[in-house]
């Protein structure tokens, strides 16, 4: 009898092992299949509470060119040209283990997420073969991203050290198409990238430019999108370019519903929009009519086709829920700025080379002063872009908090949109209202990463 029990037990263990192995192989096959087809179509992708990110150095074909670059990928090291989508649920704690296998020192920053300061990332160094486990409980839903914050940041982000983060709720499951659109670019050299940094090309169509190759999800021509009459889609745009503004053009009207991870108080329609480095913007796509058509969405010389299958179904109803935002202007409208930051740049000689000094209040990081603030108190902060170069914009990103734009050159904006990154345009004094809910030292810097590397960075110290 004892022998039979041992035989039965051994058979059970063997069968279980084979079954689990089979399931694992099936899941790996499905993962590889999805990556091969379109890893950025997250419509049916499951959310996770345990995530493993491998940072690797690899060679891939990006925009028709073989490029040596970095990737934020999965345990199987599948080929994610614009980083592995990280899908989490609002309110559910996620354990994210980051392993650095890139052969270079780096770190990670969870851009836009409201998390404790010790999880934000810039002060946590990941040496080669180093690992770090982050515990994140998303307080908000929306479109965010993770990227290197290790200086020189420009080089690592340009070479692919980033990935999208999507925080979902049940509402997101009502979309028939949910697609991440990572916007990037390849330029002839980092020197050229740096020279053009900050030039707002909003009104210029860069299609056909020999020096710039725009990319959508790591491709010059991204995977086709598909939608039918009676359906509704969400496109989540993330400007992951190290230095360049992007202009997205549609052949039909779309509905803008969220910016920088937060739903708008009131959605609006447009046929094109501009997006600064670091920013995110979500739009809804709804098409109707019996005639099937193929449309092209453009970002410079990158494009993606949307294949519409016509029918006689009525227009889809949007699941969008407007955000009832607290207007912070009422707390600070009648007061002078509590904190002022003057943004300037100047050329200096560095040996035989010319170098730009990007400054906040006349100093470059790490010589810039920190600004002391109290947790829970609303502050009025003024950014003055005093650059002499016309068209130079500085998209300023603040870690640890979102803010509202309350006035420009003293004129109220009446804008309740929440931002974590916003372009401070040349010649404009832009007043923001901001409140920190978590203590710690929080970075503030230009998200034109060449400008950050050259000194346009400081911090808020919240206590």
From TrEMBL:
Q: Give the record's keywords alphabetically.
A: Metal-binding, Oxidoreductase, Plasmid, Signal
Q: Taking every annotated instance into account, which residue ranges of this chain make up the domain Plastocyanin-like?
A: 78-170, 210-299, 340-461
Q: Name one GO molecular function term.
A: copper ion binding
Signal sequence coordinates: 1-26
Indicate what this protein is called per its UniProt record: Multicopper oxidase
Record the organism.
Answer: Lactococcus cremoris subsp. cremoris IBB477
